[in-house]
Amino acid sequence: VTTGDQVVRDMFYDGHPQLETGAIVCRVAPSFTRFGHFEMLASRGELDLLKQLITFTIDRDFADWYASQPHKLVDQQLTPELINAWFMEICERTAVMLAHWMRVGFVHGVMNTDNMSILGLTIDYGPYGWIDNFDPGWTPNTTDAQGKRYCFGRQPDIGRWNLERLADALATILPNTDGLALAIEQYDSTYVTQLTQSFAGKFGLGDWQKGDGELVNRCFELMMRAEVDMTLFFTHLAKLDIHAPQVETLKIAFYTEQGYANFSADFTEWLSQYAQRILHSSQSPKARLAQMQTHNPRYVLRNYLAQQAIDLAENNDTSLLETLHQVLRNPYTEQAGMERFEEKRPDWARHKAGCSMLSCSS
Fold first, then answer.
1. Alpha carbons 47 and 271: distance in angstroms, whole number
2. Domain C-terminal end among 162, 195, 228
3. Would 357 be classed as within a structural domain?
4. Domain check: are 164 and 212 in the same one?
5. What is the band of 361 on the pLDDT scale with cuts at 50, 70, 90?
6. Which residues are catalytically annotated?
7. 179 and 224 housed in the same domain
8. N or C: less crowded end of the chain, CB within 10 Å?
9. How many folded domains does the chain comprise?
10. Domain encompassing residue 220
11. Interval 82-137: pLDDT, tens
């Protein structure tokens, strides 16, 4: 197979295959070891090989962690204490990754255990997507459209479920599961801590305080009901005049005039509460702006932009692909002349294949 060869794709698995231009893709990561590798060996009863894989993984991919923690191999053999500590580290890394996904609106799409990195990295995302209008129930994956198991809002729970399956595999070589249970609890606490820190930055709150959860949840509720673009909303919230907050500042983020008309009063009330919270913060306006700019990307790889780049590339025009690549290398920095890449999803892309929904054959 070479780049340019024709390959058969049936995007929605509905009996309508077509030839598309193929390409060879090179994926890069420090490691592609996944939860599923350990599950497979445990399910087969290959426990000696499971221990070898764990030892190899710690040596190859967790060398810095291993050197900095007290539990060591004994006579080149794993100990329960080392396995439990290693699993704790995996849980913490996974929690941090999931919190970042929720911060920027990333939806992986296929969170099977065999797509979960042992290093807490974002890998194996095929029919993935970025949240346009804020919707916790949104999934870009056609095969998940009904059950929505891997939808945006369920990702933290699925991350936990996947860790529990990894724990099941590790339990086959441990005398008890007490340490594994503690690690799962650590996932929960690490996720909450990381998420609240992320949201404090996203909303420019300085530090997370009592009552902030209610304020943040109310905002997300209104964004969902009014059909508001997640990325644009926070880009323009950073521009809000805290001393005279106006909902017009955020109008560009609304997908419909009806949504803006129906929920302007609710957002006005929320903005008043938000402004009071900011005014009671010890953070300077300059620091607030800097905090929001480092927690809110201006540019994300919206599916409609990716599809436009694909359409052009199929006609041997890679200009948009190259521009997108350049812009997305600095997603948090405003780039002159690149305003079009901040724009919300256009109406024509709302239900267009490749823009609103994808599959593993997209």
1. 57
2. 195
3. no
4. no
5. low
6. 114
7. no
8. N
9. 3
10. 203-295
11. 999 999 999 999 999 999 999 999 999 999 999 999 999 999 877 899 999 999 99
209 plus 96 within the same structural domain: no
- Global model pTM greater than 0.85: yes
Element spanning 6, H or E: strand 6-9
Place of tokens 């999934």: 139
- Please, what's the b/e burial string for 197-235 (b: 16 or more CB within 10 A of its CB; e: otherwise)? ebbbbbbbbbebeeebeebbeebbebbbebbbbbbbbbb
- How many Cα atoms sit within 13 Å of 77 on the Cβ side? 6
Q: Which tens digit of pLDDT belongs to each residue from 220-239?
A: 999 999 999 999 999 999 99
267 & 313 share domain:
no
**CA 135 → CA 154, 185, 200, 314, distances in Å?**
11, 27, 20, 32
Residue 1 domain flag: no
Residue 286 covered by a domain: yes
Residues in the chain: 362
Q: Look at residue 362 and tell me whether its pLDDT is greater than 70.
A: no
In a domain, 26, yes or no: no
Cβ atoms within 10 A of the Cβ of 55, count? 15
- For residue range 139-188, list pLDDT tens digits in order: 998 888 889 999 999 999 999 999 999 999 999 999 999 999 999 999 99
